[in-house]
Description:
The chain is 27% helix and 12% strand. It is α/β, with parallel strands linked by helices and 564 residues long. It has three domains: 4-115 and 192-481, Glycosidases (TIM Barrel, Alpha-Beta Barrel); 122-176, Oligo-1,6-glucosidase, domain 2 (Alpha-Beta Complex), CATH 3.90.400.10; 497-558, Immunoglobulin-like. A hairpin with a 3-residue loop joins strand 12 and strand 13. Helix 9 (289-296) packs parallel to helix 10 (316-332).
Amino acid sequence: MANTDEVAIERRRGDAGWWRQATVYQIYPRSFADANGDGVGDLEGILSRIDHLDQLGVDAVWLSPFYPSALADGGYDVDDYRDVSPELGDLATFDRLVTALHERGIKVIVDIVPNHSSNRHRLFQDALAAAPGSPERDRYLFRDGTGPRGAEPPSDWNSFFGGPAWTRVPDGQWYLHLFTAEQPDWNWHHPDVRADFLRTLRFWGDRGVDGFRVDVAHLLAKDLPAELPSWAELTRGTDPADPAPPRYPAGHHPLWDRDELDEIYAQWRAVFDSYSPPLTAVAEAWVPAERRVRYASKQNLGQAFTFDLLETPWDAGSFHQIIRDNLALAAKSGTSSTWVFSNHDVVRHATRFGLPKGMSGRRWLLEGADPALEDRVTGLRRARAATLLAMALPGSMYLYQGEELGLPEVGDIPADRRQDPTYFRSKGTDLGRDGARVALPWTSTGVSFGFGGCAPPLPQPTWFADFSVERQRDDPASTLSFYRHALRLRRELIQDETLEWLNLGPDLVGFRRGGGWTAVTNFGSRPRPLPAGDVLLLSGEPLDAPGLLPADTTAWLRRDSLRS
Length: 564
Ligand code: NOJ
Ligand code: CA
């Protein structure tokens, strides 16, 4: 087995295709580690925990926004795209972080939020100070209101976070915000906006980052007609339960997934390709799978998140189909697929897979998933099995901080401690995303479980002690040890991007990878025969009978001698 130094060297290679089968670890900086003890995670905190990332064996980290922000949306309301929030550090600390990660062979991906700025952004402040119809206003999407004295919004559009999508400014005009009122949408037809983002990409590229995660990449381009359509028209046919044909053909919707995004991203691509190796990008694009290929193509962003596994219940047939379809789609656009179970926006998968049938595919608590109904043991068993299955697939694996601890969602945050705007804008009907953003437990004792010096604003439950890094570090049966082992093996085993399906019967999903290793998952409730071969790793308890794979478990095997 390669020693740690060799692994780091391997990871450091300037291979242009490094991202194709990389493991990328998402850090939500404010809840990762707090070095100065003010209750807010910071860049020094990440620096202080680099050993954790190194020992975990990830190829890259993706940093959620660390830019100056009033935190109307957890930092996705950016005041300045080319700076660091003073609460989190400064550019010099950022540079040290990039250097330190690179020294360990870990690449750095930063989050770019191009659909909207914050309302404190200099250009939005300029727009407010300028008159209606001015060039400054034209960088955002201002419109006159309707009704007497324009006192009604220009249309009945909703924000994705609940409530109206228009907010009125003192001189009577309204501006569009598809998220919170503190997140005005940019006008991407404006050349200044395009040029400013190209500058931002170069700014971070020149500081040594390796790639970008592109926030709501499908929303930037908009074409608002003089006569604004109703929200019902805009959303017609988007609900699978609604048989009505969509009002707009694919690529021509006024607000999302417009074909003209290709032009914008082609300009970005030219910037990416001016670096060696080229910078990478991954699109967060909530679009139908067949449209995803555009964002993932080589001329475009190069890769796109596949959220399908994150929206599906624990079911062999669904997993098999999703994997098959996504591998085919990725091949079609010359990219590699991505696999994601958890991120800062969704219910952690150790909880999701432990929710009762019918709820377990729910990615957001607003969709009726009740964390109080969680079966923790089943949830974690399935989460580990699902993760080990995905880690065996061709493509990149995106992990979210805390999943390596098997951390469940924190379901019972008191109303007066919640921060997520979705909770407030939905008047509490949507519990929101705070439960996935609680500060990590590093130690099993202490006021913040080793996160920092004082209790973080989102309260950590007492049971976090059991999930702490300290508790798990030296326990070979822990989820942390399991992730470390799996990622080390993944790096050793993965050779090419080939996959050959095995037909193993109901409840089993299995495939053989290039180089002669096999992964098999038992989605059923009873043990099932395991294909022949040496067991390299199991996601759960040891086999209780030789040759039988327990329920809700994945196995990796070497030299399978399957009769085909
Ligand atoms: C997607 C981000 O992941 C989410 O956290 C954010 O609220 C929205 N985009 C708006 O930026
Ligand atoms: Ca801090």
